[in-house]
Specification:
It is a single chain. With about 350 residues, the chain is an all-alpha fold. The chain has a domain at about 100-210 and about 230-345. The protein is built from 16 helices and no strands. The protein has helices at about 10-45, 55-85, 90-95, 100-110, 120-130, 135-145, 150-160, 160-185, 195-200, 210-245, 250-255, 265-270, 280-290, 295-310, 310-315, 325-345. α4 runs antiparallel to α8. The N and C termini lie far apart (about 75 Å).
Length: about 350
Protein backbone atom coordinates (compact mmCIF):
# COMPACT_ATOMS: atom_id res chain seq x y z
CA UNK A 1 0.00 0.00 0.00
CA UNK A 2 1.22 3.48 -0.81
CA UNK A 3 2.40 5.15 2.40
CA UNK A 4 0.83 8.40 1.24
CA UNK A 5 -2.58 6.76 1.58
CA UNK A 6 -2.12 5.99 5.28
CA UNK A 7 -4.19 8.21 7.51
CA UNK A 8 -1.82 10.68 9.25
CA UNK A 9 -4.02 10.55 12.36
CA UNK A 10 -3.18 6.86 12.69
CA UNK A 11 0.54 7.42 12.29
CA UNK A 12 0.75 10.20 14.88
CA UNK A 13 0.14 8.10 18.02
CA UNK A 14 2.79 5.58 16.89
CA UNK A 15 5.33 8.34 16.41
CA UNK A 16 4.53 9.87 19.81
CA UNK A 17 4.68 6.55 21.61
CA UNK A 18 8.02 5.84 19.94
CA UNK A 19 9.29 9.26 21.07
CA UNK A 20 8.14 8.53 24.61
CA UNK A 21 10.00 5.21 24.55
CA UNK A 22 13.18 6.92 23.34
CA UNK A 23 12.76 9.68 25.95
CA UNK A 24 12.27 7.07 28.69
CA UNK A 25 15.46 5.27 27.65
CA UNK A 26 17.36 8.57 27.63
CA UNK A 27 15.89 9.44 31.04
CA UNK A 28 17.12 6.16 32.55
CA UNK A 29 20.57 6.56 30.97
CA UNK A 30 20.91 10.13 32.25
CA UNK A 31 19.72 9.19 35.72
CA UNK A 32 22.34 6.44 35.98
CA UNK A 33 25.09 8.84 34.81
CA UNK A 34 24.33 11.59 37.33
CA UNK A 35 26.29 10.15 40.28
CA UNK A 36 29.59 9.40 38.47
CA UNK A 37 29.34 12.64 36.49
CA UNK A 38 28.75 14.72 39.64
CA UNK A 39 31.74 13.08 41.36
CA UNK A 40 33.95 13.64 38.31
CA UNK A 41 32.95 17.30 38.07
CA UNK A 42 33.46 17.94 41.79
CA UNK A 43 36.65 15.99 42.41
CA UNK A 44 38.38 15.84 39.03
CA UNK A 45 37.23 18.81 36.95
CA UNK A 46 37.02 21.25 39.88
CA UNK A 47 39.85 19.60 41.81
CA UNK A 48 38.02 19.53 45.16
CA UNK A 49 39.18 17.08 47.80
CA UNK A 50 36.99 14.04 48.34
CA UNK A 51 35.64 14.02 51.88
CA UNK A 52 36.16 17.74 52.41
CA UNK A 53 33.23 19.89 53.48
CA UNK A 54 33.28 21.97 50.30
CA UNK A 55 33.79 18.91 48.14
CA UNK A 56 30.88 17.06 49.74
CA UNK A 57 28.60 20.09 49.41
CA UNK A 58 29.46 20.70 45.74
CA UNK A 59 29.16 17.01 44.84
CA UNK A 60 25.79 16.87 46.63
CA UNK A 61 24.54 19.91 44.71
CA UNK A 62 25.79 18.67 41.33
CA UNK A 63 24.14 15.31 41.96
CA UNK A 64 20.82 16.40 43.40
CA UNK A 65 19.92 19.24 41.03
CA UNK A 66 19.74 17.09 37.88
CA UNK A 67 18.39 14.14 39.87
CA UNK A 68 15.48 16.09 41.34
CA UNK A 69 14.71 17.85 38.04
CA UNK A 70 14.69 14.49 36.24
CA UNK A 71 12.49 12.95 38.95
CA UNK A 72 10.22 15.99 38.91
CA UNK A 73 9.79 15.83 35.13
CA UNK A 74 9.20 12.08 35.13
CA UNK A 75 6.79 12.31 38.05
CA UNK A 76 4.78 15.08 36.44
CA UNK A 77 4.58 13.15 33.17
CA UNK A 78 3.42 9.91 34.81
CA UNK A 79 0.95 11.61 37.14
CA UNK A 80 -0.46 13.62 34.24
CA UNK A 81 -0.91 10.44 32.19
CA UNK A 82 -2.69 8.75 35.10
CA UNK A 83 -4.91 11.76 35.65
CA UNK A 84 -6.24 11.54 32.12
CA UNK A 85 -7.90 8.25 33.11
CA UNK A 86 -9.73 9.81 36.05
CA UNK A 87 -12.17 12.62 35.71
CA UNK A 88 -12.40 15.21 38.48
CA UNK A 89 -15.77 13.75 39.34
CA UNK A 90 -14.29 10.29 40.01
CA UNK A 91 -11.47 11.65 42.13
CA UNK A 92 -13.83 13.85 44.08
CA UNK A 93 -16.03 10.81 44.70
CA UNK A 94 -13.07 8.91 46.21
CA UNK A 95 -11.77 11.65 48.52
CA UNK A 96 -13.49 14.97 48.11
CA UNK A 97 -16.96 13.50 48.41
CA UNK A 98 -16.28 12.04 51.83
CA UNK A 99 -16.69 13.89 55.08
CA UNK A 100 -13.54 15.77 55.97
CA UNK A 101 -12.40 13.37 58.70
CA UNK A 102 -12.89 10.27 56.56
CA UNK A 103 -11.23 11.99 53.62
CA UNK A 104 -8.18 12.83 55.76
CA UNK A 105 -7.87 9.24 56.96
CA UNK A 106 -8.16 7.84 53.43
CA UNK A 107 -5.67 10.37 52.05
CA UNK A 108 -3.13 9.66 54.81
CA UNK A 109 -3.44 5.90 54.32
CA UNK A 110 -3.03 6.35 50.58
CA UNK A 111 0.10 8.39 51.29
CA UNK A 112 1.60 5.50 53.30
CA UNK A 113 1.53 3.12 50.33
CA UNK A 114 2.46 5.75 47.74
CA UNK A 115 6.22 6.15 47.08
CA UNK A 116 6.15 9.91 46.51
CA UNK A 117 8.92 12.21 47.70
CA UNK A 118 9.29 15.96 48.04
CA UNK A 119 10.05 16.37 44.32
CA UNK A 120 6.44 15.37 43.54
CA UNK A 121 4.88 17.83 46.00
CA UNK A 122 3.96 20.48 43.43
CA UNK A 123 2.39 18.23 40.75
CA UNK A 124 0.53 16.27 43.43
CA UNK A 125 -0.76 19.43 45.07
CA UNK A 126 -1.93 20.91 41.77
CA UNK A 127 -3.53 17.63 40.73
CA UNK A 128 -5.44 17.27 44.00
CA UNK A 129 -6.65 20.87 43.99
CA UNK A 130 -7.71 20.71 40.35
CA UNK A 131 -9.68 17.55 41.08
CA UNK A 132 -11.76 19.32 43.72
CA UNK A 133 -10.21 17.57 46.75
CA UNK A 134 -10.41 19.75 49.90
CA UNK A 135 -7.23 21.53 50.97
CA UNK A 136 -6.97 19.77 54.33
CA UNK A 137 -7.34 16.33 52.72
CA UNK A 138 -4.63 17.26 50.21
CA UNK A 139 -2.25 18.15 53.04
CA UNK A 140 -2.93 14.86 54.82
CA UNK A 141 -1.68 13.07 51.73
CA UNK A 142 1.30 15.39 51.19
CA UNK A 143 2.43 14.91 54.79
CA UNK A 144 1.98 11.13 54.91
CA UNK A 145 3.56 10.34 51.52
CA UNK A 146 7.16 11.41 52.29
CA UNK A 147 7.00 10.99 56.08
CA UNK A 148 6.01 7.30 56.14
CA UNK A 149 8.43 5.58 53.79
CA UNK A 150 8.25 1.83 53.17
CA UNK A 151 12.06 1.51 52.93
CA UNK A 152 12.41 3.32 56.26
CA UNK A 153 9.87 0.96 57.84
CA UNK A 154 11.92 -2.07 56.76
CA UNK A 155 15.17 -0.49 58.00
CA UNK A 156 13.62 0.49 61.35
CA UNK A 157 12.23 -3.02 61.69
CA UNK A 158 15.68 -4.52 61.15
CA UNK A 159 17.52 -2.06 63.43
CA UNK A 160 15.07 -1.51 66.29
CA UNK A 161 12.29 -4.10 66.01
CA UNK A 162 8.60 -4.08 65.22
CA UNK A 163 7.56 -1.80 68.10
CA UNK A 164 9.63 1.13 66.89
CA UNK A 165 8.61 0.52 63.27
CA UNK A 166 4.96 0.37 64.32
CA UNK A 167 5.27 3.57 66.36
CA UNK A 168 6.84 5.28 63.36
CA UNK A 169 3.91 4.30 61.11
CA UNK A 170 1.23 5.12 63.68
CA UNK A 171 2.68 8.48 64.65
CA UNK A 172 3.19 9.53 61.03
CA UNK A 173 -0.39 8.58 60.25
CA UNK A 174 -1.77 10.52 63.22
CA UNK A 175 0.33 13.59 62.38
CA UNK A 176 -0.85 13.58 58.75
CA UNK A 177 -4.52 13.22 59.71
CA UNK A 178 -4.49 15.79 62.53
CA UNK A 179 -2.48 18.37 60.58
CA UNK A 180 -4.76 17.97 57.56
CA UNK A 181 -7.85 18.39 59.75
CA UNK A 182 -6.45 21.56 61.35
CA UNK A 183 -5.50 23.10 58.01
CA UNK A 184 -8.89 22.16 56.57
CA UNK A 185 -10.75 23.79 59.47
CA UNK A 186 -8.89 27.08 58.97
CA UNK A 187 -10.39 27.57 55.47
CA UNK A 188 -7.15 28.85 53.93
CA UNK A 189 -7.96 28.29 50.26
CA UNK A 190 -7.33 31.98 49.57
CA UNK A 191 -3.69 31.43 50.52
CA UNK A 192 -3.09 29.12 47.56
CA UNK A 193 -1.41 30.91 44.64
CA UNK A 194 -3.92 32.17 42.09
CA UNK A 195 -2.40 30.34 39.11
CA UNK A 196 -3.26 26.98 40.72
CA UNK A 197 -6.97 27.80 40.62
CA UNK A 198 -6.67 29.22 37.11
CA UNK A 199 -4.96 26.20 35.54
CA UNK A 200 -7.11 24.13 33.27
CA UNK A 201 -7.86 20.67 34.55
CA UNK A 202 -5.61 18.20 32.76
CA UNK A 203 -7.71 15.22 33.73
CA UNK A 204 -10.38 13.82 31.48
CA UNK A 205 -13.71 15.59 31.35
CA UNK A 206 -16.63 13.32 32.04
CA UNK A 207 -17.59 11.60 28.80
CA UNK A 208 -14.51 12.86 26.96
CA UNK A 209 -12.72 10.28 24.77
CA UNK A 210 -8.96 10.66 24.75
CA UNK A 211 -6.49 8.89 22.51
CA UNK A 212 -2.98 7.99 23.67
CA UNK A 213 -1.75 10.85 21.53
CA UNK A 214 -3.97 13.24 23.53
CA UNK A 215 -2.79 11.82 26.84
CA UNK A 216 0.90 12.12 25.92
CA UNK A 217 0.44 15.67 24.66
CA UNK A 218 -1.35 16.74 27.84
CA UNK A 219 1.33 15.15 30.00
CA UNK A 220 4.11 16.88 28.06
CA UNK A 221 2.31 20.23 28.36
CA UNK A 222 2.07 19.74 32.13
CA UNK A 223 5.79 18.98 32.37
CA UNK A 224 6.73 22.16 30.49
CA UNK A 225 4.33 24.34 32.44
CA UNK A 226 5.12 23.15 35.96
CA UNK A 227 8.89 22.72 35.58
CA UNK A 228 9.15 26.22 34.12
CA UNK A 229 7.41 27.59 37.22
CA UNK A 230 9.33 25.68 39.92
CA UNK A 231 12.87 24.92 38.69
CA UNK A 232 14.44 27.94 40.39
CA UNK A 233 12.87 26.93 43.71
CA UNK A 234 14.31 23.44 43.28
CA UNK A 235 17.82 24.81 42.67
CA UNK A 236 17.67 27.18 45.66
CA UNK A 237 16.30 24.49 47.96
CA UNK A 238 19.00 21.99 47.00
CA UNK A 239 21.71 24.65 47.39
CA UNK A 240 20.56 25.19 50.98
CA UNK A 241 20.45 21.46 51.64
CA UNK A 242 23.89 20.94 50.08
CA UNK A 243 25.48 23.54 52.35
CA UNK A 244 24.00 21.93 55.44
CA UNK A 245 24.91 18.46 54.15
CA UNK A 246 28.58 19.36 53.95
CA UNK A 247 29.00 21.68 56.93
CA UNK A 248 26.78 20.34 59.74
CA UNK A 249 28.70 17.57 61.58
CA UNK A 250 26.89 14.50 62.82
CA UNK A 251 28.61 14.78 66.21
CA UNK A 252 26.97 18.16 66.82
CA UNK A 253 23.54 16.68 66.13
CA UNK A 254 24.20 13.77 68.47
CA UNK A 255 25.41 16.11 71.21
CA UNK A 256 22.18 18.11 71.20
CA UNK A 257 19.78 15.18 70.85
CA UNK A 258 21.64 13.09 73.38
CA UNK A 259 20.69 15.44 76.21
CA UNK A 260 17.56 14.74 78.23
CA UNK A 261 16.70 18.41 78.71
CA UNK A 262 13.11 19.44 78.00
CA UNK A 263 14.22 21.41 74.95
CA UNK A 264 15.95 18.45 73.22
CA UNK A 265 12.84 17.46 71.22
CA UNK A 266 11.99 20.93 69.81
CA UNK A 267 15.73 21.48 69.20
CA UNK A 268 15.85 18.22 67.23
CA UNK A 269 12.85 19.28 65.16
CA UNK A 270 14.40 22.68 64.44
CA UNK A 271 17.63 20.95 63.39
CA UNK A 272 15.76 18.49 61.18
CA UNK A 273 13.73 21.04 59.22
CA UNK A 274 16.59 22.49 57.13
CA UNK A 275 18.25 19.12 56.46
CA UNK A 276 17.66 17.51 53.10
CA UNK A 277 17.06 13.77 52.92
CA UNK A 278 14.32 11.18 52.56
CA UNK A 279 13.29 8.78 55.29
CA UNK A 280 15.54 5.99 54.02
CA UNK A 281 18.52 8.31 53.74
CA UNK A 282 18.22 9.58 57.31
CA UNK A 283 17.93 6.12 58.92
CA UNK A 284 21.74 5.62 59.12
CA UNK A 285 22.00 8.96 60.96
CA UNK A 286 19.20 7.85 63.29
CA UNK A 287 21.10 4.64 64.04
CA UNK A 288 24.32 6.56 64.75
CA UNK A 289 22.51 9.02 66.98
CA UNK A 290 20.94 6.20 68.96
CA UNK A 291 24.35 4.58 69.43
CA UNK A 292 25.68 7.89 70.79
CA UNK A 293 22.97 8.09 73.43
CA UNK A 294 20.17 10.08 71.83
CA UNK A 295 16.70 9.23 73.15
CA UNK A 296 14.32 7.38 70.84
CA UNK A 297 11.52 9.96 70.89
CA UNK A 298 13.96 12.79 70.14
CA UNK A 299 15.54 10.88 67.26
CA UNK A 300 12.18 9.91 65.75
CA UNK A 301 11.05 13.54 66.00
CA UNK A 302 14.25 14.56 64.23
CA UNK A 303 13.66 11.99 61.46
CA UNK A 304 10.06 13.05 60.93
CA UNK A 305 11.09 16.72 60.75
CA UNK A 306 13.75 15.88 58.14
CA UNK A 307 11.33 14.05 55.84
CA UNK A 308 8.05 15.81 56.65
CA UNK A 309 9.21 19.42 56.95
CA UNK A 310 12.32 19.58 54.76
CA UNK A 311 13.34 23.10 53.81
CA UNK A 312 13.84 22.20 50.12
CA UNK A 313 10.29 20.84 49.91
CA UNK A 314 8.98 23.96 51.65
CA UNK A 315 10.82 26.17 49.16
CA UNK A 316 9.39 24.13 46.28
CA UNK A 317 5.87 24.38 47.75
CA UNK A 318 6.26 28.16 47.95
CA UNK A 319 5.49 28.24 44.24
CA UNK A 320 1.92 27.09 44.92
CA UNK A 321 1.33 28.27 48.51
CA UNK A 322 1.37 31.77 49.96
CA UNK A 323 3.57 32.45 53.03
CA UNK A 324 0.75 32.37 55.60
CA UNK A 325 -0.40 28.89 54.53
CA UNK A 326 3.20 27.64 54.52
CA UNK A 327 3.64 29.01 58.05
CA UNK A 328 0.46 27.25 59.23
CA UNK A 329 1.58 24.02 57.55
CA UNK A 330 5.03 24.12 59.18
CA UNK A 331 3.70 25.17 62.59
CA UNK A 332 0.96 22.52 62.71
CA UNK A 333 3.17 19.63 61.63
CA UNK A 334 6.10 20.75 63.83
CA UNK A 335 3.87 20.94 66.90
CA UNK A 336 2.44 17.48 66.20
CA UNK A 337 5.95 16.03 65.76
CA UNK A 338 7.19 17.65 69.00
CA UNK A 339 4.26 16.25 70.99
CA UNK A 340 4.93 12.82 69.45
CA UNK A 341 8.60 13.01 70.44
CA UNK A 342 7.69 13.87 74.04
CA UNK A 343 5.16 11.02 74.12
CA UNK A 344 7.71 8.48 72.90
CA UNK A 345 10.30 9.64 75.43
CA UNK A 346 7.69 9.34 78.18
CA UNK A 347 6.42 5.85 77.41
CA UNK A 348 9.59 4.16 76.08
Amino acid sequence: MNSSLIDPARKLPVRRIALVAVAAAAWIALYNLIQPLANWLAYSALGLQSGSRLGESVAFFLYDVPKILLLLSGMIFLISILRTFFSPERTRALLGGKRQGIGNVLAAMLGIVTPFCSCSAVPLFIGFVESGIPLGVTFSFLIAAPTINEVAVVMLLGLFGWKVAGLYIASGLVIAIVAGLVIGRLNMERHVEDFVWQMQVAGAVEGEKLTWSDRIQRAWDSVKEIVAKVWIYVVVGIAVGAGIHGYVPESALAGIMGKQAWWSVPAAVLLGIPLYSNAAGVIPIVSALMEKGASLGTVLAFMMAVVGLSLPETIILRRVLKPRLIAVFIGTVALAIILTGYLFNLVL
